[in-house]
Amino acid sequence: QVQLVESGGGLAQAGGSLRLSCAASGSISVPNVMGWYRQAPGKQRELVAAIGSGGVTNYAESVEGRFFIVRHNAENTMFLQMNSLKPEDTAVYYCNLKDVRGIDHWGQGTQVTISS
Description:
- By secondary structure, the chain is mostly beta strands.
- It contains no helices and eleven strands.
- Helices cover 0% and strands 56% of the residues.
């Protein structure tokens, strides 16, 4: 089993910054892809950013240039630095790990609320 624990969500003003953290533990296979997804009320869950074990990244167009994803493989941690935040970034953010078999593991989610 893989356990993912997010932290760092909260309330920020438009134009501000927040940093999300995800700590993974358990039976973690490599290679894998870790990522952040978000789900706003009434909307489907969407990919925000992802990073492979080798460091290759992928960003949603809506966050390109504002959000930055990094991971530290030795500590099994991942971070999302979110800058120039907008009200439309408001959502529950979920940490995800897709293992070598393609199975998705999810964290419990952390609320991010951006006020205008």
